[in-house]
Design goal:
With 304 residues, this protein is of the alpha+beta class. The protein has 2 domains: 32 residues; 217 residues, no CATH class. Helix content is 28%, strand content 24%. It has 8 helices and 15 strands. The strands form 5 sheets. The protein has a 4-stranded antiparallel sheet, with no helix packed on it. A 4-stranded mixed sheet has the order 7-9-4-8. A 3-stranded antiparallel sheet has the order 2-14-13, with no helix packed on it. Strand 11 and strand 12 form a beta hairpin. It starts with 18 loop residues before the first helix and ends with a strand. The relative contact order is 0.17.
Length: 304
């Protein structure tokens, strides 16, 4: 038995079919055709086109998506088997009165430790030109183009020439110092020193060249220095000399200006997985040209 259908415009036997009924029937027929076509198109997309589009996927993920997800379960390509490598840097000043320290690195393991003695950064031969106030400067902020040669901060090895120190921009990023282009260089520099000398680091005297002092005096901004192509030529000069634990860590000058290495050595012990003990013995022998005891400034690097 054929399926019964419902007329668009029902009519009884003997009734007249008016123009209004005829037009109404055509409109309903068109609406029915459009609805049927739309439903059919949606069904084709859902059961055909969409499935074809997802043919290269599994559970909605492409092969790369699955590879990336599965790779997260495994160790990094560059790793040690105990965890990711970490790095610590401490700057400490040792005196006869304060000659030992506990360094709480909190690495959760015994790290590899290197000890460096911080040397004055300005060459002895340049002091007559730049001034005696820079003699014992171990942290110097300078502008490479104007200051590197004058202060002896451009180091030559055959044909190569490099500037001493840490590039200012990358150092700010490393320390997490935030700044804007409209900040003055003086403000950014002060913020950097505050973070650089933040506990557990000790506060060492730091210097700046006359070029930098003039720059600060003029309230020049980061944007000004970038526009003048000077921002990327700013450095913090630091001269760490690696020393062996147990050997000499002092560098003293006698009255004749000759090296006089006294009995002054570092003692290091791994206390536990989070702490290192470091002491410097014999600091009282670390005297300057006039026989004055000099502090011993060390940089300690740790790598897990």
């Amino acid at each position: 038995m054929a399926d019964e259908c419902t007329p668009y415009v029902p009519a009884n036997p003997g009734e007249l079919i008016t123009a209004e009924n005829w037009n109404d029937m055509q409109c309903k027929a068109q609406e029915d055709i459009k609805a049927t076509a739309a439903a059919t198109e949606e069904k084709i997309k859902e059961e055909g086109v969409s499935k074809a589009d997802n043919a290269a996927k599994f559970d909605g993920k492409s092969p790369k998506d699955w590879t990336d997800k599965l790779d997260e379960r495994y160790a990094d390509k560059v790793h040690d088997h105990e965890g990711k490598a970490c790095y610590r840097r401490f700057i400490k000043r040792f005196t006869p009165e304060l000659n030992k320290v506990l360094l709480h690195h909190k690495l959760g393991r015994f790290p590899v430790v290197d000890v460096y003695r911080l040397e004055p950064v300005v060459e002895e031969s340049k002091l007559a030109k730049v001034g005696e106030e820079f003699r014992n400067c171990k942290l110097l902020f300078y502008y490479g183009h104007a200051d590197a040669e004058n202060f002896g901060l451009a180091h030559h090895v055959y044909r190569e020439k490099v500037k001493l120190g840490l590039p200012f921009g990358p150092l700010l990023d490393e320390l997490g110092v935030e700044y804007e282009d409209d900040d003055t260089i003086e403000d950014v520099l002060n913020d950097m020193w505050d973070v650089f000398m933040k506990d557990p680091n000790d506060e060492l005297e730091h210097c700046q060249t006359p070029w930098v002092a003039e720059c600060c005096g003029k309230r020049r901004t980061v944007a000004d220095l970038k526009k003048a192509d000077q921002w990327n030529d700013l450095y913090v000069a630091i001269l760490p000399i690696r020393v062996l634990v147990g050997d000499q860590v002092c560098r003293s000058l006698n009255s004749d200006g000759n090296d006089n290495l006294p009995s002054c050595r570092a003692v290091l012990a791994q206390v536990n997985y989070d702490t290192i003990f470091l002491s410097v013995e014999g600091i009282e022998n670390n005297t300057g040209p006039e026989g004055v005891v000099q502090p011993v400034d060390l940089m300690i690097l740790m790598r897990s």
